[in-house]
Design brief:
Layout (H helix, E strand, L loop, with lengths): L1 H9 L7 E2 L6 E2 L2 H12 L4 E2 L6 E2 L2 H12 L4 E2 L6 E2 L2 H12 L4 E2 L6 E2 L2 H12 L4 E2 L6 E2 L2 H12 L4 E2 L6 E2 L2 H12 L4 E2 L6 E2 L2 H12 L4 E2 L6 E2 L2 H12 L4 E2 L6 E2 L2 H12 L4 E2 L6 E2 L2 H12 L4 E2 L6 E2 L2 H12 L4 E2 L6 E2 L2 H12 L4 E2 L6 E2 L2 H8 L1
Antiparallel strand pairs: 1-2, 3-4, 5-6, 7-8, 9-10, 11-12, 13-14, 15-16, 17-18, 19-20, 21-22, 23-24, 25-26
């Protein structure tokens, strides 16, 4: 009883009088503030003795331990889904009732939890309290920071039980697993095209409406979604946040890095059903399949020559215009495509990224390797 009294007496007269000096967040008790500050310091004093994962609070460790035991004592009386914590069950039940108790006073959007509201409000204020200690990039939530840090560490803790492929987030794993099941739950009412994610369908609809709400402040180019804009802006800034841990080469997107890493591993996941040839990307497979069908959808309006890819047609047009927009910064020689420039620059650097698996001989251009292998 005396301990409860002491705790009560420590309660401040104001609702939240303990303020975080790092981000300004206010807490009711000094003990809550101490726990919150671990977000900034990175301190995680509670460790799991089974897997080594660490936590800021003992209660979080307690919940985590149930992942190892499989214990889920809280079940939903409507759908039977089970949960580790009662708070998770409470949040889940709101999905059935549709109740959203927490409303944003700036845009009237409502949320199931106060935490979701807090995170949403940061989109209005621009607050990003979680910073990466390696590159300084800031994020709205600690979970977004954790995901980002895997870019630096290369950690991929989620693996597919069907093919063994590993992923940095559980969400990407779930999307990948649909490639095995063929499940595409979201369909476009206008053209019938189906998608694995609702966000992909939402972006696709903008192709019908022509809506491109995201604008580059440097060149004015417009985009269907914010992620495409973010990737585009890296062309202006030169930012390449995804690096290969084997050769150090950097890329604008994680997907480009993944494709590059297949050069080191030799992994070719995409197979042609006509001839059995394998490819490292689905895009390369699609281009190859046109050699079987003879399909050349892109024609030059000047000479009538046809191509399997729009990019090939675009490059071809430069033969008519004489345009050579890609210049070597070492010798000044100009080229019609960035790929020709890249191949040329290897003469200066001596880089030979293509090697024969049989004799080890290396080449600067893939076509030279193919000739050699014949």
């Amino acid at each position: 009883g005396s301990e409860h009294l002491k705790k009560h007496q420590r309660r401040p007269t104001g609702k939240k009088s303990h303020c975080c000096s790092d981000c300004g967040k206010r807490c009711k008790y000094s003990s809550y503030l101490k726990i919150h500050q671990r977000v900034h310091t990175g301190e995680k004093p509670y460790s799991c003795d089974q897997c080594g994962k660490s936590f800021t609070q003992s209660s979080a460790l307690k919940s985590h331990l149930k992942l190892h035991t499989g214990e889920k004592p809280f079940s939903c009386d409507q759908c039977g889904k089970r949960f580790i914590k009662s708070s998770n069950l409470t949040v889940h039940q709101r999905k059935h009732t549709g109740k959203k108790y927490f409303s944003c006073n700036q845009c009237v959007k409502s949320f199931i939890t106060s935490r979701d509201l807090t995170v949403h409000q940061r989109t209005h204020t621009g607050e990003k309290p979680y910073s990466c200690d390696q590159c300084g990039k800031s994020f709205i939530t600690s979970s977004h920071l954790t995901r980002h840090q895997r870019v630096h560490t290369g950690e991929k803790p989620f693996h597919c039980s069907d093919c063994g492929k590993r992923f940095s987030t559980s969400h990407i794993l779930k999307m990948h697993q649909k490639t095995h099941t063929g499940e595409k739950s979201y369909s476009c009412a206008q053209c019938g095209k189906r998608f694995t994610q609702s966000s992909s369908l939402k972006s696709h609809r903008k192709l019908h409406t022509g809506e491109k709400p995201f604008i580059c402040d440097q060149c004015g180019k417009r985009f269907i979604n914010s992620s495409n804009l973010t990737v585009h802006q890296r062309k202006h800034t030169g930012e390449k946040p995804y690096s290969c841990d084997q050769c150090g080469k950097s890329y604008i997107t994680s997907s480009h890095l993944t494709i590059h890493q297949r050069r080191h591993t030799g992994e070719k996941l995409h197979h042609c059903s006509d001839c059995g040839k394998s490819f490292s990307t689905s895009h390369t497979l699609k281009m190859h399949q046109k050699t079987h069908t003879g399909q050349k959808s892109y024609s030059c309006d000047q000479c009538g020559k046809s191509f399997t890819q729009s990019s090939s047609l675009k490059s071809h047009h430069k033969l008519h215009t004489g345009e050579k927009s890609f210049s070597c910064d070492q010798c000044g020689k100009s080229f019609t495509t960035s790929s020709y420039l890249t191949i040329h620059q290897r003469r200066h650097t001596g880089e030979k990224p293509y090697s024969c698996v049989q004799c080890g001989k290396r080449y600067s251009d893939k076509s030279y390797l193919i000739k050699h292998q014949k």
